[in-house]
Amino acid sequence: MDTSSRPQSPSSAAAARPDHDAVAAAIERRLQAEREKAAADAAAQGLSFDVRNHEKRQEFRRMIDPGILRPNPRSLALEALQTLLKLAENIIDHPDEVKYQRFKPTNPTIKRLLVEPRGTLEYAVAVIPKLGFHPQIEDFQPYYVFNKRHMNDLKIGAAMIKEAVDRELVKEEREQRRRADEKAAHEAAVAKVKQAFYDDRKGRALIDERERVTRAAAAAKGAAGSPAQQDAIADYRPKRRMPGSGHTLSGETIDVDDDDEEGSVTAGRPDDDE
């Protein structure tokens, strides 16, 4: 039997309906957890703002990243943020000095970083009114003038900008160290290859020199035992004979006079009586 069309009992329908009190309690617990986390984050960052400013801080964070940092070169984005931070800190540190409460968009730094590159840094321009600056015309000159009623917003924005700048500077320093380490490793590898090349050339030169000396010694030794070398030695021997007389094994008598270079041989046999 099909029971899908059977009406539900009141108790079953009540059980199927959500418990609005339980849902409300769950939402309240989640919101409370978010507020406590925001308060802890603010305390860790040294902020004096209460939890009610949590959404405003989040708004500034979104405008900074991904609004400014992500789509732009890091160096340009950092310089723009540092300029915004300087504008805010000047007012915070000197709240009663009028000269810090306004700036001209035609200022070269402001113009280069915040006004001209609208396609890339429109978020930086949008941050300016969030910080409490609003455009005005004075003596036909454009200005951004700070309204003191926005001092709290200025402090929140300055804190969020400083948070981002400090974080990005740490990343930049780490990146610079990484590049320096890679460069040093590359230079060390190149130096090692060069040294190995020089050592190989030096070793090859020593081997070649030893082989040359060996070949020269072998050539000299071979030349000393050749017939031509022997003839040269024989020709070099003196041909003059020492003066005197003597007998050969055959009994011949040899007399050499002082004036006879070749000497004279007196042939004869010993006396029969001897």
UniProtKB/TrEMBL annotation:
Q: Where is this region: Disordered?
A: 1-22, 215-274
**What SUPFAM superfamilies has UniProt attached to this entry?**
PUG domain-like
Q: The organism's lineage?
A: Eukaryota, Fungi, Dikarya, Basidiomycota, Agaricomycotina
Q: Acidic residues bias located where?
A: 254-263
Q: Where is the PUB domain?
A: 78-155
Name this protein carries in UniProt: PUB domain-containing protein
InterPro entries, per database record: PUB-like_dom_sf, PUB_domain
Short name of one Pfam family for this protein? PUB
Comp. bias regions, Low complexity: 1-16, 216-225
